[in-house]
Write a structure and sequence with these properties.
Blueprint: H1 5-24, H2 28-44, H3 53-67, H4 92-110, H5 115-127, H6 131-135, H7 139-159, H8 164-183, H9 193-208
Helix pairs in contact: 1-2, 1-3, 2-3, 3-4, 3-5, 4-5, 5-7, 7-8, 8-9
Length: about 210
């Protein structure tokens, strides 16, 4: 018997929050199980093809969080089951990240100005600088994702000045540029004038938070 969408959403949101708590507590295997369970429930409710936009949005949130999980303890970083990276292939965790972005872009096609869709997409794009996703991506791909994510957050903070979350996420996104550049210090990526200027603009915002 098919469950009502409202029931599925409430349950999946709770499971997602439990998964995130497990992630923060370094209980990676438990987080994987919880995110996988949420995905199963959402897929049963139509998944990315659901007519219910809340189902599609929740699926994108789950996929984004799943994509940034570290490998479980005592397991190789690119386990054959979940994180193997063969030459010229897209690893499963990156597929999750790209699928989340695709879902959000389709939602934005329907409602281009929706702040929630824009915010969650910005979070997905910002996540592309997380260690495993950055490792599995081309240099320009990661920089382009960060650029788009920061631009989305910059517009949101200007349009909604009373929402501190948008300002905070914009600042943390800029900070990720500097953290990521250190990870990629052996590559051709350089912290150019554009990024440095943006970082200087972020400093007064930090004091306002």
């Amino acid at each position: 018997e098919k469950r009502p969408s409202t029931y599925v959403l409430h349950r999946c949101r709770l499971i997602r929050q439990m998964g995130y708590t497990s992630h923060m507590a370094n209980q990676t295997e438990q987080a994987i199980e919880l995110y996988d369970r949420a995905r199963e429930l959402l897929d049963e409710a139509g998944g990315e093809k659901s007519e219910n936009t809340e189902i599609r949005l929740e699926l994108a949130r789950v996929l984004q969080l799943s994509s940034i999980l570290p490998p479980p303890k005592n397991q190789d970083a690119f386990d054959p089951e979940r994180r193997e990276v063969a030459k010229d292939s897209v690893p499963p965790f990156k597929r999750d990240a790209l699928k989340a972005q695709s879902i959000l872009r389709s939602l934005l096609d329907e409602k281009p100005t929706d702040p929630t869709y824009r915010y969650v997409l910005a979070s997905c794009l910002k996540s592309m600088s997380e260690p495993y996703l950055a490792w599995a991506s081309r240099l320009g791909e990661t920089e382009s994702a960060l650029e788009e994510g920061i631009e989305l957050l910059s517009k949101l903070k200007d349009e909604y000045p009373d929402n501190p979350d948008y300002r905070y996420q914009w600042v943390t996104a800029l900070n990720k540029v500097f953290r990521w550049s250190k990870v990629r210090s052996r590559t051709t990526f350089t912290m150019n004038t554009k990024w440095k200027q943006r970082h200087r603009k972020a400093l007064p915002v930090i004091h306002e938070l």
